[in-house]
Write the structure tokens for this entry.
Amino acid sequence: MRALQASELVPAGFVVENVATDAERVLVTIRASSASCTCPLCGSMARRVHSRYLRRLVDLPVGGRSAEIQLRARRFFCDASCCQRRVFAERFVGVIERYARRTARLDDVVHCLAIALGGRPAATLSKRLNFRVSNDTLLRIVRRRGAAGFAPPTVVGIDDWAWKRNQRYGTLLCDIERRRTIALLPDREPASAQAWLARQPQISVIARDRGGGYAVAAKRALPHAIQVADRWHLMENASRAFLDAVGKSMRQIRKTIGAGRIDPKLLTYAERLQYEGFQRREETNASILSLSQEGAPIREIVRRTGYSRGLVRKILRGQRSDVFRTRPSSLEPYLPWLDAQWDAGRRNGLALWRALRERGFCGCRIVVSEWSARRKRAEKAEAGAIGRAPSARTIARLLTIGRDQLSKAQTITVAAIEGGVAALAEARDLIAEFQGIIRRKALPELDAWLDRAALSGLAAFAKGIVKDKDAVQAAIASAWSNGQTEGQICKLKLVKRQMYGRGKIDLLQARVVGIH
Ligand SMILES: [Zn+2]
């Protein structure tokens, strides 16, 4: 090893004139080592110095102190007779950019920090690292450098993501083979997706959800590419179709299991609130339905009632008659176990809660004690039976889980529904078959299944599948799925949250595409 030269502390091509230091800071005065400079306009070599001036720059910290560079820069005369330029300032391309206040090597570090952490956290860390950079500067650097490039993909996944839930959506494109996000689009318009896809003609497979918009875009931009419907979405759509079928049959179900009227006494406080909300909603439903029966068009109903168009349509289609909001309770996964404990005589709410916690339940004690209180009241009111009609979601679950997992009361309920609402049992079996076809990749069975489903309560779902049949077939047969894209969207959500409100699309894109 040899002694460190002061010139090695500064970028190559410079001579150190002086180094001064105090407790916090190192100040290095430098000048360019070459005697000449190329004219930026004509390219000829200039040697005649016009004047000198000082530039101040921040550099990478030295030994824990912030480093400041004082650059004695020159202006040159251009003596070439053909050149328009008489005087120019010397340039240090790639080392110190024009007008820059940081050296290029510090800018690289700052850029990496901003990509990895996002503006505000990076600004905080930069202070600790002795080169204070403001949040705005960090964001500006990311924006100026843009997103990292990407290798041309051949298998892409496309899906939408929420800028702001229920308000604003963007589109994410992901290279499924390389497992990385390659682009974010500011909206989820088919036209935007189409324009992006058209610039990547080498793409041969597009995995997408079943929304329809991306399907159209892909077909127009890349008619030869194979479209693959997302398997996860297919499974999810199938479950939802069944839940819808249950929701539409709720009145019939209540009639069959003899709980057509709900006794508010049996409900806990939260449910009572829901029940009151339900009564209000039923009144709304009734008034909207009667307006419609009088022959008022949707627009007129919207104007007269003040409800949104979407809601009115939902009500007219009979999609809003379910009593309880179909949101699963935290207790739901444990209900079969709880029922078994209950039947075995273990009925102490506190003891049950303790045992549940050991099984991974995270909810608070009240949830369990309310459940047990409800059970006690229910048993008093009606020996053996649970005192209310379960929600559509609960019924959908009861109908789809294995018989061995049902309690005695639940088995009775299921048997009653299967007997009384036969169409629902059929729909349940059809959904199970469909999911089986996807899982087993049993493509040849699809057509027969579609024929049967078209005549069942799942006709609408089957119709949707027929409309998108090529992509569904590809989803069953092909190895590609949009699961990757889902993962990338999770990552995006994380980055977005770190950026607080400042996540403009270019910043978000630079960060998401930059992280590997
Ligand atoms: Zn010149």
In short: The first helix runs from residue 104 to 117. The pocket of zinc ion is lined by residues 39, 41-42, 44, 78, 80, 83, 85 (CB under 6 Å). Confidence is low (pLDDT under 50) at residues 260-264, 322-327, 383-387.
